[in-house]
Amino acid sequence: MARYLLTLLLLANTAAYAADDQDIEEDVSPSHFTSEVGLGFTALAGNSDSQTLNANYDLQYIKGRYKTNADTSLLMAKKNGEEDKRKISANLKTQMLIRDGYYLYGSGSYIDDRYGPYYVDSLASAGIGYRLFSYETFQTLVDIGPGFRHQDPNLDEIDGDIVKPEVVNEAVLQSSLTMTWKPLKTLSVENKTNIVAGNSNTTIQNDLSLTNSITDNIALSIGFNYTYYTWVPNNMKNFDSSTIVSLIYSMK
């Protein structure tokens, strides 16, 4: 692990000192700030009385060679009149462009889940990334770096969820691949794949979202989430999936 960290630092340091005047021009570019608010709701009636609310807030700030993305989401559900889910998650990622598409990044995530497998699930990592493709309508980013994971298990969910029965504090290796595509003026497609490898478990999460603009500020978004686990308890499947439909209001 120490050798890996040293290699990352040497690569970043070498690339930073090799930056030329063309790279520095990005430092004087104007700041750009955007934010989005999303809200989704599903109601079922008949044999099942269930209401599910999902809300999210996304924030992006770009200044020169620096880019920061932050988002937070809330999921609440009631089944037969009683609370069944309450989950709050937050993510933060900052990137600093070095040269020729290379960038350094730092990221953190936090999940507070009352009824899920872990009351608290947090992760922090840092590393180096590369912009594979950068066109007007298509972009691909890939990055990798070491990190640290903390998980506080919900022991009541051991028989019905993917959960280790002990507190997890471990070093991990995180890697992500993000692709964005805008085939039409009003349609955008984004796919994010995130891998977190650790001794307790390795997870592969894929998020695919399609967003269609209705007006300049309002859009409809459909998201598909798929998560694969290398370890699961007996008699359980190695994957979870979900679908979320939301209306999004953008502020620029």
Report on the architecture of this protein:
The chain is mainly beta and 252 residues long. It has a single domain, classed as monomeric porin ompg (Porin). The protein has 2 helices and 12 strands. It has helices at 2-17, 21-24; strands at 32-44, 50-63, 66-79, 82-99, 102-113, 118-134, 138-153, 168-181, 187-197, 202-213, 218-229, 239-251. A 12-stranded antiparallel β-barrel has the order 1-2-3-4-5-6-7-8-9-10-11-12. Strand 2 and strand 3 form a beta hairpin. It is globular, with a radius of gyration of 20 Å. The N and C termini lie far apart (42 Å).
Helix and strand arrangement:
Layout: H1 2-17, H2 21-24, E1 32-44, E2 50-63, E3 66-79, E4 82-99, E5 102-113, E6 118-134, E7 138-153, E8 168-181, E9 187-197, E10 202-213, E11 218-229, E12 239-251
Antiparallel strand pairs: 1-2, 1-12, 2-3, 3-4, 4-5, 5-6, 6-7, 7-8, 8-9, 9-10, 10-11, 11-12
Keywords: Signal
Protein name: DUF481 domain-containing protein
InterPro entries: DUF481 (IPR007433)
